[in-house]
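PT: before anyone asks, these are the final sequences, not the draft ones from last week. 367 residues across everything. Please model them as a single complex and drop the result in this thread when it's through.
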Amino acid sequence: MSGHFAFLLHPLDVSDVARKFPFLERHVPGHWLEAVMPYAPPIYTSHITGIRSPHNTAEGHFISVPLTPRLMLGLPEKVVLRKLIAAGRMAERLGARILGLGAFTAVVGNAGRDLADALDIAVTTGNSYTAATGVEALGLAADAMGIRLEEAEAAVVGATGSVGRVSAMLLARRVRNLTLVGRDPQKLEALAEELLRETGVAARISTDLHASLVRADVAITVSSAIDAIVHPEDLKPGAVVCDIARPRDVSRLVAEKRDDVLVIEGGIVEVPGDVDFHFNFGLPERMCLACMAETMMLALEERYEDYTLGRDYSLEKVEETIALARKHGFRVAGLRSFERALSEEEVARIRANAMRRKAALAAAAGS
Ligand SMILES: NC(=O)c1ccc[n+]([C@@H]2O[C@H](COP(=O)([O-])OP(=O)(O)OC[C@H]3O[C@@H](n4cnc5c(N)ncnc54)[C@H](OP(=O)(O)O)[C@@H]3O)[C@@H](O)[C@H]2O)c1
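LR: through. Structure below.
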């Protein structure tokens, strides 16, 4: 037997659609394209072949939901859910037994719960493995920058969300100083209490993103903001940021203006076997996002049950997912920043720039 899954994709903005269909870019203005998207059906995108673990093989399908994050948050919830259900029905007709939810398809509809209730096949958001790989990648990047996590000031932006909550719990096992950053003080307080109960770490809470980030040595950013919320002036020299959000939380300007901070992409995973996605979603061969990987490993395991759903799943579920990933041979890919691999030399350069900047700031403060 071989595992069978499907995975929902969607454009992160209108330019994504225009890039895939250049004739549209030439003839249809972006705002028109976004205006017609709500009327378009789901689109079969590609057949995913060649996934092979030591224990099983799997195949799958990408199905695209033609909605941007802006539309998913702006349209009536019922309309968005109807479109996701139509895509889920396509997955069922294709013979998939489990459906993974990419980016904002996992944010809306009670983080996958409403879609899971409506479909006959299993559903997972992929958020357990996303959180696990984000924290692992942050640890690797901190090592490369010579930062000891147990002594570092850490922050999680979007901490009250589905990925953010569990990322904060995992990070709390490795750091002593942690700030939970969000928009809603009540949710933050409840999370800080849960964190203290579960991990013994007394985290600070903050709704002030800038004030929290300028003191952070390491940070995970995983909000569901539509536009970038982390800007060059928000980061401390030498800071390491793992940006898991899609669309990104960290502005591209950081890459241009701050040669003394390390921003890495979270949740990038190498797939076992000789996978061919038959679709270019911007990563090198054999690499995918952790949420896709979670769907694949459940298919390889032929574990067709609703898996990571909602915003309150347990750390045990995350640990189980890490074990499944190991069993089937998924692993965190090397460090990547703004869509490209980072070499050791580049990281060494960032580290040297950070030391120079810190020395200059200390000298200025002393004079
Ligand atoms: N790389 C991957 O493999 C992968 C996998 C899964 C998800 N993701 C991405 O991760 C992100 C979060 O997903 P999720 O499922 O955890 O979402 P979620 O459960 O909706 O949580 C989002 C969090 O972001 C906060 N937030 C929303 N808008 C904000 C803004 N403008 N400024 C500051 N904070 C804001 C929310 O705060 P409130 O509580 O105040 O609303 C909440 O804490 C999304 O971008 C998603 O696409 C990536």
